Structures are given as structure tokens and as C-alpha cells.
Q: What sequence folds into this?
């Protein structure tokens, strides 16, 4: 019993060591997403607070950004609820993650360009709305992945990830234009690549598990069928022996009757 327990502990340690690199990579991708989230919400890395009516535009910018985030999360919740009622709910595909990261990259780059070109505030606010949509979508995909992968353990490294994301955002803010905006635009795309890798590996593991379960079910059915065949053949042999015994007994009885002088 002690040997079995030690083997189980050793296997658990090996599995934890094998997954630690993947977990660190996943956390790094999440930290990149959080850094982009902080930069969009709370920083002037795009240079949009450097000219014009700073306080008036800042108010409208934050209002539009928060509203677009709220509408995005609400729309995703309603869509997920609708699919759940129809029985078609499933995890987001890898292509959805790629598109979300690409959208975040493009919108971040467009907003930086719009601000640099000093276009009208209406155009800038329209791009801000798209920025909030892409941010909410990517945030939802990350949170959903963490809940599926870690479950109750999700809250353990979350605080560390938030601190790391804030520190990374601060470092990016220290860079001058255009390094800061370029790093800000690239961060969500790299983050989506990490998330897409995780979802692809999870899909492969799920397929392998279902394939293994299917093979095990087929083997169980084949074993049951072979057991039935063996039982049927054994029963047939037993019946054949019984018939031979009855026939032999009948022949012996006939010989005895013929040999009896009285009969």
C-alpha cells in the first residue's frame, strides 16, 4: 500500500512539473491582456490626452468606453443564454480567438493613428467604442478559458496576474511615441495567440479522450460478445454430451431387453 501511495504522489509531481511551463505561458498571455486593458482604460499611451479640451474629451472617452464594455458583456451574456436554451452552447472556437486578437490589434493601431492625425472627436469616439468592444470580447474569452481550465483554483494566481499586468502597463507607458502605442497594439494580439494555443491543445486532449473512450467501449462490447460466444459454445457442448449420454443409455437398455429371456 505504501508503494502504491508513493507512486501516486510521484506521478502527481511529474504531471505538475509537466504542466507548470504551460501554466506560466498561459499566465503570461493573460498578463499581456490585462496590461492592454489597463493601458486602454487608464493611460494616455495613445497620446489622446495631449491636446484639445482634455477634461471634456476624457469624460466622453471614458463614458463611451465603459458603455461599450457594458454593452459587449451584456450582449455576450444574452447570446450565451440564448444558445444554452437551444442546447447549442459550446466553447468559443480557436478562429474566434484569432479574430478577437486581430481586431484588438487593428483597432488599437487605428485609434493611435486617428489621434496622431488629430481627426474630429466624433471619429475618435467611434473608434473608442470599437476599442471597448474588442476589449470586452477578449476579456470574456480569457476569463471563460480560466474558469474552464482552473475552476475553483482560478482565484489563486489572479491577484498576481493583475499586479504583473499593472507593472507591465507601467513599463509600456515609460516608452516614448511610437514605441508605446506599438507595444500596446501588439500586446492583445500576442495574448490571443497564447489563448488560441491553449484552446487548440484543450481540443486535441478532448478528442484524444473521446477517442480513447470510444475504443474502450468497443473493446468492452467485443469482450462481452466473445464471452457470450464462449458461453453459447459451452452450452452447446454440454447439450451434445447430454444427448450422447441419453442415446448411450437407450442403447444399453435395448441390449438388456434383448438379452433377458423373460422379455
A:
Amino acid at each position: 500500500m505504501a508503494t502504491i501511495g508513493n507512486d501516486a504522489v510521484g506521478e502527481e509531481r511529474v504531471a505538475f512539473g509537466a504542466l507548470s511551463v504551460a501554466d506560466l505561458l498561459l499566465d503570461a498571455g493573460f498578463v499581456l491582456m490585462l496590461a492592454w486593458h489597463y493601458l486602454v482604460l487608464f493611460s494616455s499611451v495613445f497620446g489622446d490626452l495631449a491636446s484639445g479640451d482634455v477634461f471634456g474629451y476624457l469624460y466622453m472617452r471614458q463614458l463611451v468606453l465603459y458603455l461599450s464594455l457594458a454593452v459587449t458583456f451584456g450582449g455576450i451574456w444574452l447570446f450565451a443564454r440564448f444558445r444554452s436554451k437551444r442546447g447549442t452552447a459550446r466553447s468559443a472556437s480557436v478562429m474566434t480567438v484569432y479574430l478577437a486578437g486581430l481586431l484588438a490589434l487593428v483597432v488599437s493601431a487605428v485609434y493611435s493613428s486617428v489621434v496622431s492625425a488629430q481627426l474630429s472627436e466624433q471619429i475618435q469616439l467611434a473608434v473608442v467604442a470599437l476599442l471597448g468592444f474588442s476589449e470586452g470580447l477578449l476579456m470574456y474569452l480569457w476569463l471563460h478559458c480560466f474558469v474552464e481550465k482552473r475552476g475553483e483554483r482560478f482565484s489563486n494566481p489572479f491577484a498576481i496576474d493583475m499586479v504583473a499586468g499593472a507593472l507591465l502597463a507601467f513599463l509600456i507607458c515609460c516608452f516614448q511615441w511610437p514605441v508605446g502605442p506599438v507595444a500596446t497594439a501588439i500586446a492583445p494580439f500576442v495574448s490571443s495567440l497564447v489563448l488560441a494555443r491553449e484552446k487548440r491543445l484543450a481540443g486535441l486532449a478532448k478528442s484524444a479522450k473521446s477517442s480513447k473512450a470510444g475504443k474502450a467501449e468497443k473493446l468492452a462490447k467485443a469482450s462481452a460478445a466473445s464471452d457470450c460466444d464462449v458461453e453459447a459454445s459451452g452450452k452447446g457442448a454440454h447439450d451434445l454430451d447430454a444427448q450422447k449420454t441419453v442415446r448411450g443409455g437407450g442403447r444399453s437398455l435395448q441390449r438388456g431387453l434383448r438379452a433377458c429371456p423373460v422379455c
